[in-house]
Design a protein that fits this description.
This protein is mainly alpha-helical and 457 residues long. The protein has one domain (13-201, 242-456): MFS general substrate transporter like domains (Growth Hormone, Chain: A, Up-down Bundle), CATH 1.20.1250.20. It has helices at residues 8-13, 19-31, 38-52, 56-84, 86-105, 110-139, 144-174, 176-198, 225-238, 246-249, 254-257, 261-290, 295-323, 328-344, 354-381, 386-403, 405-415, 419-425, 427-456. Helix 4 (56-84) packs antiparallel against helix 16 and helix 7 (144-174) crosses helix 15 (354-381). It is globular. The two termini are 37 Å apart.
């Protein structure tokens, strides 16, 4: 039974719209997925290889198996979130992410390391990120893109600009094992209580409307099931006249959504970007070493990635809200930028300074795509079945991140260079961009036709 109406007291004590509280705490939640994210795991990979005494090929193989397995399991997590509610689930997920960090800190053989990778990827990159995105989508509709852009900018800054630096300092000071143990304590004693206190399901459950719109109800406290229906009805009236949000206020079931080309083109785009971005992060240090880039320049790359990601998140978030029904064009732009960045990797051999441009374009393109991925499923299919729909999409993203590093590493081992991998890989985002444009344009035309038919009735 979903914990739908619990925690109404917390919602009511704030003198402003509670969606802003949700935005802040869910942004913190997204940042604290870092122990299971590639930018942070990539920082400790070399330490793990040296400490446990295994090859880089073995580590990437374990990472592939663990992330693939977590992607399969993640497809069911969204339905659990829909059924149980975000408040309970974020608490459980944060506690288990802490356990995952503890397991990683004591891994001394291949078996335990495989288990640690699985738990980190499933509860960090997958589940905690999913429940945080879902909660923001519940509370914001008209300003969903902008709010996701703000959250994404802060997450990018923390994930690519702060956490890698903190991890490097932690490794130097106390070692990678103790560092991950501390991250586990942080998840259990900070993130879990924070989530239980402030994560909440749909605002209609508390007599509110998304975006802070005012419901015309005498009792603006915790809603009963009857008043909840009244609020939903009013939300339908208060929505955009051109139905550009929440699928025109029509909630599409997961089964129906999975039959559309729009779902699969967007979900597979997420998987593709996850694959190429993870490969980029995983092999970034290798690219630098191959091209004789010194440590000073290596340290300057992370701020470039962070700044570019922040810029991309803020710009693309505003573009999503401005474009409305044509928000899929932001995804197309991001995929094209990703293709350009992969081609630009080939130029690093001629000038090491080209790596700065590569990192800027790559982070910008990834920010565009990830921002769209955070809102597109809520915009297209509504909020009612969002957990299950977002769950499958996120599982494809996790699967992409599992597959990505392996072929790039294989090409490097076989040819002595990453060039062929990035050249061939650059065609995939371009092909996907064309598919997204075709399928999303088709769905837009179908929705407009459906609305015309409804108006005739």
């Amino acid at each position: 039974m979903k914990d739908r109406f619990a925690g109404g007291f917390i919602v009511k004590i704030f003198p402003f719209f509670y969606g802003y509280v949700v935005l802040v705490v869910c942004t913190v939640g997204k940042i604290l997925t870092a122990p299971g994210q590639s930018p942070c795991i990539g920082v400790v990979i070399n330490s793990i290889v040296d400490d446990i005494g295994i090859s880089l090929t073995t580590v990437t193989g374990l990472y592939l198996v663990a992330t693939t397995t977590s992607a399969i399991a993640l497809s069911r997590m969204g339905k659990v979130i829909d059924r149980v509610g975000v408040r309970i689930m974020v608490t459980v997920i944060a506690l288990l992410l802490g356990v995952a960090c503890f397991v990683a800190s004591v891994a001394r053989n291949v078996g335990v390391l495989l288990l640690a990778f699985f738990l980190l990827r499933f509860f960090g990159q997958g589940s905690l990120m999913m429940v945080s995105k879902t909660t923001i989508n519940y509370w914001w509709v008209d300003l969903r893109g902008t709010m996701m852009g703000i959250a994404g900018a802060l997450v990018s800054l923390g994930m690519t600009g702060v956490f890698p630096v903190v991890l490097n300092l932690g490794i130097e000071a106390v070692g990678w094992r103790q560092t991950y143990f501390i991250l586990g304590l942080n998840s259990i004693f900070f993130m879990a209580p924070l989530g239980f206190l402030f994560y909440r399901n749909e605002p209609e459950n508390f007599g509110l409307l998304p975006d802070g719109k005012e419901p015309k109800l005498e009792d603006k406290g915790v809603c009963s099931e009857e008043s909840h229906k009244e609020v939903e009805s009013e939300f339908s009236e208060a929505g955009d006249s051109d139905h550009k949000r929440d699928g025109g206020n029509i909630d599409v079931t997961a089964k129906e959504a999975f039959k559309t080309g729009a779902f699969w083109s967007n979900a597979l785009s997420l998987g593709l970007i996850a694959a190429t971005a993870t490969a980029f992060w995983f092999h970034l240090k290798g690219i630098m070493i191959d091209n004789n880039i010194d440590k000073t320049m290596m340290q300057s790359i992370y701020p470039v990635l962070a700044v570019s990601s922040v810029i991309g998140r803020l710009i693309s978030g505003r573009m999503i809200d401005t474009y409305g029904k044509k928000g899929f064009l932001v995804l197309v732009y991001g995929l094209i930028m990703q293709a350009i960045a992969m081609l630009l990797v080939l130029s690093v051999q001629f000038s090491k300074y080209m790596l700065v441009l590569v990192c800027f374009v790559q982070a910008l393109g990834s920010a565009f795509v990830m921002n769209v991925a955070s809102v597109v499923f809520a915009n297209n299919f509504g909020r009612k079945y969002l957990g299950e729909i977002q769950g499958l999409a996120d599982s494809l993203g996790v699967l992409g991140s599992a597959i990505g590093p392996f072929p790039f590493g294989l090409v490097r081992d076989q040819t002595g260079s990453y060039n062929m991998a990035f050249f061939v890989g650059s065609f995939l985002p371009l092909i996907t961009a064309l598919w997204v444009y075709w399928s999303s344009s088709g769905r837009l035309r179908m929705r407009e036709q459906a609305y015309l038919e409804l108006e005739r009735l």
